[in-house]
Design a protein that fits this description.
By secondary structure, the protein is α/β, with parallel strands linked by helices. It contains eleven helices and twelve strands. The protein starts with 9 loop residues before the first strand and ends with a strand.
Length: 358
């Protein structure tokens, strides 16, 4: 059954991101975020007062203080009062909330932004707070160890091997050579094992960064952008919280989200996948059927993906922004964007973006 068409046409009309860095100790979250907000508004000629709704994505665990997102509002300008919301998730989920807000007709434009500074602490320890608090978290398995369990399950199932994972890393870093915002580019030193069977090159970089997009509805989108990236479908699903009841070699939630977003109705030419580990790209390709058909049909992660830059809480939003930019530049006509959160691809969001016929 075809996915239902949204009640209102909504598009990404602008996207901006920081140059992602290993550390930005000299900058606060607001100082890191403000240039991105200025850039994304400048692309449309809009001012903050022209925005109908604002939504952000971040996490207090990285900032180390409660309600840290309220300080980032200084970068937006919350006076006079604005219509604003926040999700304790990757910015892709903030975009989903903004999309639903525009669907209601309560606003015609929305600003979505996300940011994360991973450099001050140990991300591997911080992300254990996402785990089941009774059975898993007390064991303190970190994010890399859990990804290694998933990678080993894939190898045991015959879905991949270490050379194939190395090839994913090599292709991603090579693609990032053309991305001025990427944190890592060029050749991939395989290095030592981070946690067997994952080597350091199979894992994402730790770094700081921010991103922002502007959404607009209907004719307003065409006024603000020469070729808007229309969101034709978007959906998100979640796996069971308990890792022991899941098949780590598959991602049913990604597949279900893709079905409801309309991914499988006709081919896409671009896929921006939020796969922080090389093994997770293997899982996502299978769930999204990207390996079916002749090779080269779909360009996967032309930006380099999360293996080239993985700012926590912004990397998923960046996947949507990168896919939208390719449509806006005329390099893509129908693109898939994916975002994830939680251990071993626990939560997954999939969006389909299209440009007007050329």
């Amino acid at each position: 059954m075809p996915a239902p068409r949204p009640l209102r046409d909504i598009a990404v009309v602008a996207f901006a991101q920081t140059d992602h860095r290993r550390t930005s100790d000299e900058l606060s979250e607001v100082e890191m975020l403000m240039p991105v907000l200025h850039q994304v508004l400048a692309q449309t000629g809009m001012r903050t007062s022209d925005i109908g709704f604002t939504c952000s994505g971040s996490t207090d665990y990285l900032a180390g203080r409660a309600f840290s997102f309220t300080m980032a509002l200084d970068g937006v300008g919350a006076w006079p009062p604005i219509s604003e919301s926040h999700v304790e998730m990757d910015g892709a989920w903030a975009l989903y909330e903004a999309w639903t807000k525009l669907l209601t007709g309560d606003a015609d434009t929305a600003l979505v932004y996300a940011y994360g500074k991973s450099s001050p602490g140990s991300v591997r320890d911080v992300l254990t707070r996402q785990l089941d608090p009774y059975y898993v978290a007390p064991l303190w398995p970190d994010s890399v160890a859990l990804a290694a369990l998933q990678a080993q399950a894939l190898i045991d199932a015959g879905d991949t091997d270490e050379p194939a994972l190395a090839a994913v890393a090599t292709r991603s870093r090579a693609a990032a050579a053309g991305n001025s915002h990427a944190q890592l580019r060029g050749s991939v030193p395989r290095g030592e094992y981070a946690v067997y069977p994952l080597r350091t090159g199979d894992c994402p970089p730790i770094g700081d960064g921010a991103a922002a997009v502007i959404l607009a509805a209907g004719e307003r989108a065409r006024e603000l952008c020469e070729r808007p990236a229309w969101i034709r479908g978007i959906d998100h699903r979640i796996e069971a919280h308990g890792l022991g009841v899941r098949d780590l070699t598959d991602s049913p939630s990604t597949r279900l989200a893709a079905e409801h977003a309309g991914v499988f109705e006709r081919p896409v030419d671009t896929a921006e996948l939020h796969a922080p580990f090389t093994s997770q790209e293997v899982v996502l390709r299978k769930a999204l059927r990207l390996d079916e058909g002749p090779d080269g049909d779909v360009v996967v992660n032309p930006s380099g993906g999360a293996l080239a830059a993985n700012p926590i809480m912004a990397a998923g939003l960046i996947r949507i922004g990168e896919a939208a930019d390719r449509i806006r530049r005329g390099e893509s006509d129908r693109a898939l964007a994916h975002a994830t959160s939680g251990p071993c691809l626990q939560q997954n969001l999939v969006a389909v973006l299209e440009g007007d016929p050329r």
